[in-house]
Amino acid sequence: MKNDGRLSVKEFADKLSKFFLEKWNAQKIPYVPGQDMVFFVGGYDEGAPYGKVFEIYIPSRPIPAERYNTSGEFGLIWGGQREYADRLIHGFDNRLPDLTKNFLSLDDKKRDELSKYLQSQLQTPVPFAFLPLQDCVDLAIFLIKSTIIMQHWVIGVRGVGGAIDVAVITQAKGFEEVQRKKIRGEEKWS
Question: 84: how many CB neighbours lie within 10 A of its CB?
Fold first, then answer.
């Protein structure tokens, strides 16, 4: 690797995590389980054939955990208020295996087996490894818009909404904005 100041994806994830953990701790924000700030850091290391994605939970799991590796595994990674995206892609809400575990008094192994079985039977058959980049962008926007629209009708936290920013990271071109919201002033209220 050239010494041109470029960080590896892991090094960048480590620096990002450290920065936000310091900010969190400086503000003395009390931790509520399940209320972490979640980051996905993705990109390509120089010369690597596949990208890497790291997941960070501030403050509970600040050490970046690699989600996909060099095995060539393809798929979606999403976080936040994901119940509608889970239902559309996996065929069920990600809370279903735990709800079933508790109701039927299953152990963790049986819960995990149930989750894999349900996903194998219900998942939408999207060929992720073969999707053109434009289809990936369209799918991401569709899942976000579906969540925004569903949250109009449900009781609960409406944590998804507004304009959607979209970017892609490719091995050839790096980071590219596809769609970026514009900040407007007073005209919004006219």
Answer: 19
Report how far apart, in Å, the C-alpha atoms of 82 and of each of 85, 89, 175 are: 5, 10, 24
For every one of its 190 residues, what pLDDT tens digit does the chain have, with 9 covering 90 and above? 455 788 999 999 999 999 999 999 999 988 888 888 999 999 999 888 888 999 999 999 999 999 865 456 678 888 888 899 999 999 999 899 999 999 999 999 999 999 999 999 999 999 988 999 999 999 999 999 999 999 999 888 888 888 999 999 998 898 999 999 888 788 766 5
175: β partners = 169
Q: What's the rounded Cα separation, in Å, for the pair 182 and 179?
A: 10
Q: Whole-prediction pTM value?
A: 0.81
Nearest of 78, 24, 69 to residue 51 by alpha carbon = 69
The DSSP 8-state label assigned to residue 64 in this structure reads E
Angle, CA 157 vertex, CA 151 and CA 153 arms, to 5°: 25
